[in-house]
Amino acid sequence: MYTYRNLQEDFSLLSKKGARVGSVGNSVLNNRIYYAHTGSDSGSQIIVTGGIHARENVTSLLVVKQAYRHLNCAMGIYFVPMLNPDGAVLIERGWRHVGRYTSMVRQINGSDDFSLWKANVRGVDLNNNFDAKFGLGKGNLTKPSSHGYIGKYPFSEPESAAIRDFTLKVKPSYTVSYHAKGREVYWYFGQDNARDKVMASKIARYLDYKRVDGDMQSAGGYKDWCVLQGISAVTIEIGKDELSHPLCEGDVAEDIERNLDLPQKIHLWNKNF
Ligand SMILES: [Zn+2]
What we know:
By secondary structure, this protein is of the alpha/beta class. The chain is 34% helix and 16% strand. Helix 1 packs parallel to helix 2 and helix 6 packs antiparallel against helix 9.
């Protein structure tokens, strides 16, 4: 399992190796949501995120590996591997380690096994908490849960508000959100933009994943919100669909390999469009 501690160790190493390291903001429990920037400060930027769903921590590992891979790449890329650090702490260390939320998470979960938990420690599914058809998604819930709860209002959670503010500041030309599982590329959120579809096709073909054009059942996600801001965006689901959660590194070794160079590929395709 890739942990918050692992992330901190990797970030001190990334910093030593020349990445510019900082924080997008803090979580409910005041854990830092780290970013590493590689390449140019000026010109087009890409934001790559992972770990918004706690049980999908293999995506955090992937985004960290991408950051190392791009240390010498000239193109500007922000890597944000763990958007939900509290969720990562919960699945790794258990309910005793989430401060004043211990009784709440136990009550919500109904058991002490948190290996399938996706939400933050307030039981909000951060990828349903963005202001994009808020509360209209299939499977959206209106009370705290291990997954699917939209929160009281859009951006009620410090984690989603932090990546919103960061994105508005960076003004990226493209964002990539990593999830697991299914080997799929989602891009559509009602936009009339042929270019977005072509980019999603290129990504899907490069990865040998399936491009999914979307049936508009998702809502409140980071990718959805980016599209509404006019930022081209994809959600990429790594890992074969027949795997079961929680995934481990060995389950997605091949997916990590396939995705390692994707950020610089996206930069090139975007530029040469
Ligand atoms: Zn997910």
